[in-house]
Design brief:
631 residues; single chain; Rossmann fold; binds magnesium ion; elongated; 22 helices; binds adenosine-5'-diphosphate; Ribosomal Protein S5, domain 2; nine-stranded mixed beta sheet
Length: 631
């Protein structure tokens, strides 16, 4: 046969890089290769069982799906074998020579060169098969795809030197056998006792029996080493904490510990079991649009698909887990999942479970919840807009930096904020800037700070979008301190109001002169209630687009209409007082422009003409220093 020839192929560049990494930087945890290969064998059995639903003939007379692990101390080899789906020659070339996952290039970009960190990333990326080369200097794969004739077997081999060979062979057994020719310093792994304990430790929850030869001289009889029962089908009370953790690592390829999990069985009109985990850190592709997300879907214990994203909303895309439905048809497809009302019902049930689990973590284990917020807070916030029906469950989960806290880490909850509001305070104040530090120093909150009113400090890209849509928490309305009126209510004393009115009367002339100088760059010039130290600020209307939204939309190529802010003046400020008494019109106009430009800068906006600003500022400085030199 012409295509039976043996050919030598080069690994994809990324695979070559990865192999180098595997070989040179994974000294600790070398035993993970076994977990990865057993997991691949289990996946292969799962896939065959799934295909056999439609095509029972695929199973033939070999219907009991299992995994065998053999070690040969004399030859220095370990073989992991399954009777699952197998691979065709093309599949072997594609799957064992390239990395097909989305985000491959991001993965390589995120490698730091730090062994410890990078080995964690490798785990997270789930490039299991290639981990064989951590312990082997040569790997041989014999395989035959289910449903193909015996002469369509495949032999694949590589010594990780940049190339692999592949040839067509005759193979009686269906499925795949991976043989590792161990490196001299990895021979210890042929020890039967060691292998058994590794399998129990890492692969106990695999849904198929993992068999090893019985101990004793040349025994040919195999016995199961693992429990071979899907973890989520066992009663909660019987499952140890460690088993839950290992199962998490198995499904997530994340080898840090999960922060929490929730294991539930729903019975009655609809029946399903779910096991959901809160990971301890964000995956490297959390912000990538096409990143894989979602749960592992089983129907009546039969594996159906990975990454079933229909069971959780987008803002919970970082939750890992399994859902096993008793009601969905076994032949369900992604398309069908999208339309099935049953799926929507499960989705809303699971969403509540996750939100409850997070609420529990937030109150009972605040340290762990801090990690959740640090890693996933920005995504969780999207839920305020994406999932309005659950808004009341999400609001208490939010954490903020605040003027009442020293550090910039968001730790303040809305509940805490409301509890320590000033007497007479009716609004929850917040301010959004480019950074938490910029928000903390924002001119908009000068008066609030002076009055000891707490202000929440925000700096995430989506904050303006999200916060603008919130109405109230526990009856207290949210208020952006940089917009409209501060709505101080009874916080502003009578004396304040009187002083305000007096200032307004006295400043009428000044306000008009500044407005004339600025023309229609501003909608209005008025006296300010919010300033203490700064001479002026630009204030948008309640419903105008803010700076960051404006930037997001402009970046997306949209035309954004100019917003015309009001300029608020601090009439108690020496500079403003000086202007009021100035009769030099040219100088007055120049100072008005400067005030405007400075206010735009402080707001985090960009100047239309930075050069003009600098020249203007220099003219004023020259005049000032010139006067001093002359005096
Ligand atoms: P992953 O398991 O995350 O897909 P791996 O690197 O572990 O990544 O495996 C790569 C691919 O190789 C698998 O997706 C599968 O298509 C194929 N493969 C590996 N081991 C087996 C096996 N025992 N039987 C069939 N296919 C396999
Ligand atoms: Mg794998």
């Amino acid at each position: 046969m012409s295509d039976a020839h043996k050919e030598t192929r080069a690994f994809q560049t990324e695979v070559r890089q990865l192999l180098k990494l595997m070989i040179h930087s994974l000294y600790s945890n070398r035993e993970i290769f076994l977990r990865e290969l057993v997991s691949n064998a289990s996946d292969a059995n799962d896939r065959l069982r799934f295909e056999a639903i439609a095509q029972p003939a695929l199973l033939g007379d070999d219907a009991e799906l299992r995994i065998w692990v053999d070690a040969d101390a004399a030859a220095g080899t370990i073989t992991i074998r399954d009777n699952g789906i197998g691979m065709t020659r093309e599949e072997a070339v594609a799957h064992l020579g390239t990395i097909a996952k989305s985000g491959t290039s991001e993965f390589f970009k995120s490698l730091s060169g730090d062994q410890q960190k990078d080995s964690q990333l490798i785990g997270q990326f789930g490039v299991g098969f290639y981990s064989a080369f951590i312990v082997a200097d040569r790997v041989e794969v014999l395989t035959r795809k289910a449903g193909t004739p015996e002469d369509a077997g495949v032999r694949w081999e590589s010594s990780a030197d940049g190339e692999f060979t592949v040839e067509t062979i005759t193979r009686r057994e269906r499925g795949t056998a991976v043989t590792l020719h161990l490196k001299p310093d990895a021979k210890e792994f042929t020890d039967g006792y060691r292998l058994r304990s590794l399998i129990r430790r890492y692969s106990d929850h695999i849904g198929f029996p993992v068999l090893m030869r019985k101990e004793g001289e040349a025994s040919l009889e195999y016995e199961p080493v693992n429990q071979a029962k899907a973890l989520w089908t066992r009663p909660r009370s019987e499952i140890k904490e460690d088993e839950y953790k290992q199962f998490y690592q198995h499904i997530s390829h994340d080898f840090t510990e999960p922060l929490a999990w929730s294991h539930n069985k729903v019975e009655g009109k609809r029946e399903y079991t779910s096991l959901l985990y809160v990971p301890g850190r964000a995956p490297f592709d959390l912000w990538q649009r096409d990143a894989a997300r979602g749960l592992k879907l089983y129907v009546k214990r039969v594996f159906i698909m990975d990454d079933a994203e229909q069971f959780l909303p987008l803002y919970l895309r970082w939750i890992k887990g399994v859902v096993d439905s008793a009601d969905l048809p076994l032949n369900v497809s992604r398309e069908l999942l999208q339309q099935d009302p049953e799926v929507d019902a499960i989705k809303s049930g699971l969403t509540k479970r996750v939100l409850d689990m997070l609420a529990r973590l937030a109150t009972e284990e605040p340290e762990k919840y801090r990690t959740v917020w640090r890693e996933f807070g920005a995504v969780l916030k999207e839920g305020l807009v994406e999932d309005r029906p659950n808004r009341d469950k999400i609001l208490p989960l939010l954490r903020f930096a605040s003027t009442k806290e020293e550090g910039n880490e968001p730790t303040v909850s809305l509940k805490q904020y409301v509890e320590r509001m000033q007497p007479g305070q009716e609004r929850i104040y917040y301010v959004i800037a480019e950074s938490i530090d910029a928000a903390r120093g924002s001119p908009y909150i000068e008066l609030l700070k002076e009055r000891n009113v707490e202000v929440l400090l925000l700096a995430d890209r989506i904050d303006e979008w999200v916060m603008g849509q919130l109405d109230a928490f526990e009856g207290k309305r949210f208020k952006d301190a940089s917009r409209g009126d501060l709505e101080l209510g009874s916080l502003a004393g009578e004396a304040d109001k009187a002083a305000q009115e007096a200032a307004l009367k006295e400043s009428k002339g000044l306000l008009k002169r500044v407005k004339d100088a600025l023309g229609d760059r501003v909608s209005e010039v008025r006296t300010s209630t919010r300033l203490k130290d700064s001479p002026a600020v630009l204030v948008l209307d309640e419903h105008d687009l803010g700076t960051s939204m404006r930037r997001v939309l402009q970046a997306a190529g949209q035309h954004v209409p100019e917003a015309k802010p009001a300029l608020e003046l601090n009439v108690a400020h020496p500079l403003v007082k000086y202007m009021d008494s100035s009769t030099d019109t040219e100088q007055f106009n120049e100072l008005s422009q400067l005030l405007y430009d400075q206010a735009a800068l402080a707001e985090g906006g960009q100047l239309a003409n930075p050069t003009a600003y600098v020249q203007r500022l220099n003219r004023v400085l020259v005049r000032l220093t010139g006067a001093q030199a002359g005096g």
